[in-house]
Automatic annotation (TrEMBL):
The organism's taxonomic lineage, starting at the top: Bacteria, Bacillati, Bacillota, Negativicutes, Selenomonadales
Catalysis: reaction(s): Exonucleolytic cleavage in either 5'- to 3'- or 3'- to 5'-direction to yield nucleoside 5'-phosphates
Gene name, Swiss-Prot/TrEMBL: xseB
UniProt-listed InterPro entries: Exonuc_VII_S, Exonuc_VII_ssu_sf
GO BP, sorted A to Z: DNA catabolic process
Pfam families: Exonuc_VII_S
Name used for this protein in its record: Exodeoxyribonuclease 7 small subunit
One Gene Ontology term, aspect cellular component: cytosol
Any one GO molecular function term: exodeoxyribonuclease VII activity
Protein species of origin: Schwartzia succinivorans DSM 10502
Locations listed in the record: Cytoplasm
Domain of life: Bacteria
Keywords for this protein: Coiled coil, Cytoplasm, Exonuclease, Hydrolase, Nuclease
Coiled coil: 6-36
């Protein structure tokens, strides 16, 4: 059986937003609510991992200055 394609950050975020909106605007049964909550947690974790990878990549971006390479640390508001 083929493995399902992993959603991109944008797809995961869009699905997560959709789940939150459905949970706020509807009154799903408990089983459906638990299923949506579980999927939301998985999507949230995926988004956080994607953001952490992006932050690490940005931390390693370099700047050339006088023919030397310097690591620039990204400062995220709220850290």
């Amino acid at each position: 059986m083929a493995k399902a394609k992993e959603p991109s950050f944008e797809e995961a975020l869009e699905e997560l937003e959709s789940i939150v909106q459905e949970m706020e605007n509807q009154e799903p049964e408990l089983a459906e609510l638990m299923e949506k909550y579980s999927r939301g947690v998985i999507l949230s974790q995926k988004c956080m991992k994607s953001l952490e990878r992006a932050e690490k990549a940005m931390d390693l971006m370099v700047k050339k200055e006088k023919n030397t390479v310097q690591e620039l640390e990204l400062k995220i508001e709220g850290d």
